[in-house]
Amino acid sequence: MSRQEERREAKRAYWRNVLADWARSGLSKTEYARRHELNYGQLLWWSSHYPHWARREGPAPESESATTGEEVVEPLSALGAPRPGI
After folding, report:
1. 49 close to 86: Cβ distance less than 8 angstroms
2. First CA to last CA across the chain, in angstroms?
3. CA dihedral 28, 34, 36, 41 (to 10 degrees)
4. How many domains does the chain have?
5. Considering Cα of 42, then 31, then 72, then 14, what sign does the dihedral take?
6. Between vectors from CA 9 to CA 8 and to CA 14, what angle results, nearest 5°?
7. Considering the domain boundaries, does residue 13 fall inside one?
8. Distance CA 14, CA 41 (A)
9. Does residue 86 lie in a domain region?
10. Whole-model pTM?
């Protein structure tokens, strides 16, 4: 995998986790972005292009993960890693 592909995948994984965490938070996008110091426009863009990442109430069951190829996501607060260059 090239460096560019790795960055793209890291960014997608980061926003997948952000959207899942936002969906579980019950907050508006505006409030969530403010509390987590995110760019509201980016949160809006990612949530409109990948709405299925925000529909899940919790991590996907293992069986769903295996059949859809989707990665099980952790809450954003559990990441502990710095945000990728977004």
Report:
1. no
2. 20
3. 80
4. 1
5. positive
6. 100
7. yes
8. 16
9. no
10. 0.65
Structural contact between residues 71 and 65, judged by C-beta atoms closer than 8 angstroms:
yes
Residue 44 lies in a domain: yes
Amino acid (1-letter code) at residue 85: G
Mean pLDDT of the chain: 78
**What tokens were used for 12?**
């997608």
Contact 58, 24 (CB under 8 A): yes
Number of C-beta neighbours around residue 6 at 10 A: 11
d(C-alpha 75, C-alpha 77), whole Å: 5
Q: Is residue 12 part of a domain?
A: yes
Range of the domain at 73: 3-78
Instruction: Note the maximum CA span of the chain.
Output: 37
pLDDT tens-digit series, residues 46-86: 999 999 988 755 454 443 334 444 444 445 554 454 566 65
Each residue's pLDDT tens digit, 29-41: 999 999 999 999 9
